[in-house]
Amino acid sequence: MRSESSVIDRLEGHPGGAARRPPGGPASPRPPRPGLGSRLLGWLSPRAGRAASRAEAEGAAPRGTEGTRGMAGRLIAEDRYAFVLLAEAVGRVAEQDAAAAWKALGSQMAMVPAGSVPAVLCDGGVAELELGGFFMDRHAVTNRQYQRFVQARGYDDLEIWPREVWPSVARLVDRAGRPGPRDWEGGRFPAGRADHPVAGICWYEAVAYARWVGKRLPTAAEWQKACGWPEHLGGGTCNRYPWGNAFDPSRANLAPSGQGRTAPVGDFPSGATPNGIYQMTGNVWEWLDDPLEAIPCGPGEAFRPWKPMRRILGGAFDTYLPGEAACQFVTGQGELDRRDNIGFRCVLPLDQLRPLP
Amino acid sequence: MTGRPYLTEYNRPHSDQGCPLCGGHVYEGEPCGACFLPYKVIESIRSRLAAPRFVVVLGPTGVGKTVYLGMLLDLLSRGAGGLRGLSRSPFSLALHRNLILALERQRFPEKTPVETDRWHWLHCEILPAKGRAAVDIVAPDVAGEAVSEEMESPGSQKTIRALMGRCAGVVLLMDLVEVVADGRAQELFAMQLVSYLDALRPGRKKGRKVDLPVAIVFTKADLLDDGIADPVAFARGNVPGLYGQCEARLGRFSFYASGVAGSTAKLLDDSGAERLVPLRVEPRGIVEPFAWMVGQLGG
After folding, report:
1. Structurally, what CATH architecture does the domain formed by B48-201+208-298 represent?
2. CB atoms closer than 10 angstroms to residue A5
């Protein structure tokens, strides 16, 4: 079994000190996510002895052999640059590596500044929420990116999977019975679809991948702010779509666009947000962190899902009513369902990173 | 089935022709006295040069007949599966409109009332792909209870009987979740319908099968996480009695799986009653059975 904390522990200059926050950074609206938290254990806890013994037991090179530079380069190459940029790692990452990681982050993620958002809640109510700043993936996670996770035996690394799903991880297999998305074959994505969004993954697989790259899934409020901000018309709850409030089939892959299947994540540039986040409307629904615990109900009605559900947003290639692709729409899917029209993207809160360059 | 009117009816204005469904006696502005075909449908059919094909969508209560028909109309109005449907009368749009307005509120439409005069009907001109002639389709959104009543006591539901005797194609809906989870009720109901069809439209010669296209559609496929990749294999494995009966009695049949909602949940109301609600709309497998049937209609 691969254990990422032991890998991180092998970096040079492991201080085992307390967490350091970037000076003047916005306060996190909520405690660090379990995924990122567990990732940070290797940095935060003085567990050098344990790490060393685990490394030896795995037959790995002695501590420091790979070196911070090599490790940072590998993390960046695997799109796991978030680990290089953690506030806790400031003293141990060379400036050159940090610069390379910022470059990778800048090309793959866009910043959404701190501020308030009139967030639409599950029950249809609206709450003004104060959000910290965050980076959001410009594109949904692709098959190519997800294959790195599969090949790195991410499905065997139980540390990054929520404990409640452990009994089910062995059932998350592809057509050939190997760990991976439902429509893959033998650990590989369908030919010609490297740059299409990964789909056929349940919420837990999205969470595990996000933890593996040192990020997390967005909340509905974050999604709404990233997608519908800045609001042009004012007075409402953000724009419905990244480009405004009127649906335009040429800007997003929904059923009215007539494509009928997923498109590469870089398609539909005219539907991107002003800061360059693609396909927040259309192509695939995307898993959010929020549970679906209610839907808009009439008097005397109560929501009764028969399985735990999570919210999804954005609409997909087969979304029939364009209004359902708006960033205020409330819908969800069972946490363990693996649909061919649901993928995901990740976010990275600013307050967990070193100061911006 | 034309009958002599009663004495009290002699002074009422007669319609020129008989009922287009059963041939029965029709008074101006009134439904057919024999099969209760609404006058608006009769009028709409008479406004056309070519005779329409009657199609009937059948299944037990709650199987999704209204949702299937309404979604089909909406898809056809946009053009789907090589077909385009043009509504011939405003009444056709009522069913369509009711469904879409309900789905937009994340609800399924109310149950179709059992009374024949409250059913929605559709009259659509179907324009197939190039090289084929347009065809008019007339279909009612029947109540499941009425179908059950007619199965139990044939002749009690005259509209159903007239439709089954005259229709050019049947779409038979089965609730997939009930097939998987709740025993054989759906299968036995479908077998009853096939048997009824056979009794009503026997082959001319002994051993000859009913020559009517019958599309059997498993509805609510979205509720099954794995979906159905091969509806025929599913039918063989899960409704073997029905499959065998279709093979023995029907000349043309085909199995499909369909779904309208991308995801569903339940709502509980004050009285403790549960109702299924759609969390979003992702129609799949709706046009395919209909397109197959239209392809089977021939000239």
Report:
1. 3-Layer(aba) Sandwich (3.40)
2. 19
